[in-house]
Amino acid sequence: MPSHDTIAREDLILFLNAAFACSGQREFYHTADEQRVSVQFLHAYILGNYRRLYARTLAAGVNDFNAAEIIVNLLRTGRETPPDFRAEENALLGAALRRLPPQRSWKVLARLRRERVNNRRTRALVRAHMAGQRDLTFQAVKYRRFVRAAALHAHLHLGGELPEFLFGTFRRAFRTPLLETYRQARYSAQAVYALPYSVAQGLAARHGIPPQELAGRMTARLTEGERLRVQRRSAAVVEVRPERLPLTALCLYVLGLPLTERQARAAELEDWLGRAAQAVLHRAPLPLSPGRVAAVLDNSYSASGSREKRRRPLALALATDLLLRAGCPAGTYRAFWTQPTASSLLVQAAGQTNLTERLLDALNWGAQTVLVVSDGVENDPPGVFHAALRAARRLCPALKVLHVNPVFDAEMLTVRSLSPDLPAVGLRDADDLPTALGFAHFAAGGAEVSDLETYLLERVRAFLNPGEAHVDP
Known about the structure:
Layout: H1 4-21, H2 32-49, H3 51-56, H4 64-76, H5 86-99, H6 102-114, H7 120-131, H8 136-142, H9 144-153, H10 162-167, H11 177-185, H12 189-192, H13 197-207, H14 211-217, H15 224-233, H16 247-255, H17 259-264, H18 266-283, E1 293-297, H19 312-327, E2 333-337, H20 355-365, E3 369-373, H21 384-395, E4 400-405, E5 408-409, E6 414-415, E7 424-426, H22 433-443, H23 449-464
Parallel strand pairs: 1-2, 1-3, 3-4, 4-7
Antiparallel strand pairs: 5-6
């Protein structure tokens, strides 16, 4: 019968894998509703049984979707916080909320009002968050509905012209230029173009301005994320600046280009991809053992993702290839795609998932460490990877095999593994690959729950004091 410590370690690893990979969006095999129901169950279970560790996972690199869920759940159940842990939990909540992208942090505060979470700690967190904004006026314009909800919920008395802007009737002119521009844009189509793009979109519809015209005239004001969204969803011609994109977004951009364009721009794209990979490694190097490293990368049809996460599994496989290529010494790394391609730049999602054959190719090449990036659904043929892995480990006891999975399995409440002997680690963003590889040590059962607790404490220390060095297991 498993001990309490073993159960606790397995529960936490199950939750962290879900919190690394699941974003509540539709995946290739499961709907968005199935994803959300499964991950919400895990949140409730871990919160109820391991509150301290649940709060500390905010520092472990969980994705933004799950960080927001943890914040709301901790605030909703504030009465259950142990008195000796309250200060640390409060510090984690404040730091986690600050690190969320602005649109997510304001949505969290609006959700607290919608769900009627209005205890003293919640109001203090809202006040601190709003006081910490470098430009609250800009935030109020861009996220007016959410800022208004947060101010109402926490009973805040804002200074300057913000109360009139958030709650007034816009009959009088504002002295603050941005607020006045917004007021004028309610009546003048020309003033719309002087606003942030996300704000202008709503007012443009009011004035009958076509989306293509709005994007075309506001190109210079678009953020990199807005440029990508406009390119995907609109007929407007907007220049994307790939050199400014983070690695995962850049891989998605490249994979969205036609093959002919990828071939024609190969040198340019490879230079941008290489620079983005180096930027990730500069922040956190990959914790890999010396020797030959191979990547078995899944570019089967399921890597095309879903409508909400189009080509994301394939983008993470490509990003992993780039990171390993940049992080391993020359001649010690090689990629093996399930559907072989002349160049990683030309990879596409198609065909079956024949991971076993690629694993054997990697071992034949002499790999001492093999990193598998796949959703874990093996079908060419099914179930053979486990037998091949066991045989390989008998022949080469020093062989290290790691499995990184970018897809949360709603039925299994975790990321699917390829073998009982090879636990998978969840991954949503290429920037998190160093963290995921470090966490693989715990997922493989190579540590006790006390080791996991110590690791989380060290992560908390670095999370609350960003100047400290990166923490590895």
